[in-house]
Specification:
By secondary structure, this protein is an alpha/beta fold. Helix content is 30%, strand content 17%. A hairpin with a 5-residue loop joins strand 4 and strand 5. It is globular and about 50 Å long.
Length: 255
């Protein structure tokens, strides 16, 4: 068909991997479910290649409800020592890895390398951020967070993970909130600096949901009713933001 690319979950929203990985770290962490969704990853990748379909591995980065019992030290915690939990659709709760913990970076990198090894051509990071309600008055981000803002640590992680994965011969992309393009407040809350992350990524994917924008954004009275103008305005703002990256320096392609 005309399909030329597929984004396939490799580390899912709950933290499990979707195919069996021959990795001591993955096995020790217990993130391979009893019944993996992808039974034969090699055959799947071969079929995609044979049909000229570009395979992209989606890695849910810091949202993770799988390893909290085996490695609670990796998790975001409230100031009273309990695990930080976010409310999810359907009344579910989710826990989050602490982006300030460098061991977490290598955990994510291990899974990403496994995806590269089986033939994925690109690693796409989702939830490469803090939960939007994880505020410092409630959450203990750990000693590594002293004097370092959320945007700084996410940008540092982005730089590190891109450098490491380029050595594996894959492209690296990331999903980011569309609202961070125009809202410094939102950027600081989730830790995503649009222009700074674009200095390292091959592709940056702003998620421009009209429902995320307040009435009056980009001169639109009700953004939900005029998605074209919201997306157009966001992409214009994106171009302006990325102008801070000097001509000739690396700049992510906006997708």
């Amino acid at each position: 068909t005309e399909i030329n690319a597929m984004v396939i979950d490799v580390k899912s929203d709950d933290g499990y991997v979707t195919f069996t990985m021959d990795s001591p770290v993955v096995e020790e962490f217990g993130i391979i479910p009893n019944s993996v969704p992808i039974k034969d990853i090699e055959t799947l990748i071969k079929k995609l290649y044979a049909n000229n379909i570009y395979p992209i591995a989606r890695i849910v980065t810091f949202k993770d409800s799988t390893i909290k019992e085996k490695h609670p030290e990796y998790m975001l915690k409230n100031r009273d020592g309990t695990l930080y939990e976010s409310n999810e659709p359907g009344g579910q709760k989710a826990t989050w890895l602490n982006p300030y913990n460098k061991e977490v970076w290598d955990y994510v990198l291990t899974i990403s390398k496994e995806a590269a090894a089986v033939g994925f051509k690109e690693i796409q990071f989702d939830y490469i951020r803090f939960h939007e309600r994880a505020h410092a008055d409630q959450v203990d981000f750990g000693p590594e967070s002293t004097g370092k803002e959320k945007t700084q640590i996410i940008s540092e992680f982005t730089k590190y993970i891109v450098e490491q994965l380029h050595q594996e011969g894959v492209y690296v992309s990331a999903d980011v909130f569309g609202a961070i393009i125009t809202s410094e407040i939102d950027a600081k809350i989730v830790g995503q600096n649009y222009a700074e992350m674009a200095k390292y990524l091959d592709y940056i994917c702003p998620m421009v949901y009209p429902s995320h924008y307040a009435d009056g954004s980009f001169g639109v009275e009700h953004p939900d009713l005029d998605p074209y103008q919201i997306i157009l305005g966001s992409m214009g703002a994106s171009s302006n933001q990325l102008k801070v990256i000097k001509e000739g320096e690396h700049r992510a392609i906006v997708r």
